[in-house]
C-alpha cells in the first residue's frame, strides 16, 4: 500500500517537473529599451512588435529576435575657423 502511494507521488512529481520545464522553455523576457519580433518557422516574421515584459512563444516553432532600440549619443568632429567654437 505504501509503495503504491510513493510510486504515485513520484509519477506526479515527474509530471510536474516536465510541465514546468516546457513552460520555462516557452517564456522569454524583453528588457527595457528593447523590442522583439517573432520569427515563425512556417509563416516567417510576424508583423507585431513585442514590447517590454515576459512573453510566451511556441518552442521549436517560434523564435524571438530581440533588438536594442535605445538612442546612443554620437560625437561628430567639426572643424571650425575659430578656437571658441
Automatic annotation (TrEMBL):
It comes from the Eukaryota. Pfam families: Band_7. Transmembrane segments: none annotated. One of its GO terms (biological process) is mitochondrion organization. It is found in: Mitochondrion inner membrane. Residues 29-80 form the Band domain. InterPro entries: Band_7, Prohibitin. One of its GO terms (cellular component) is mitochondrial inner membrane. This is Prohibitin.
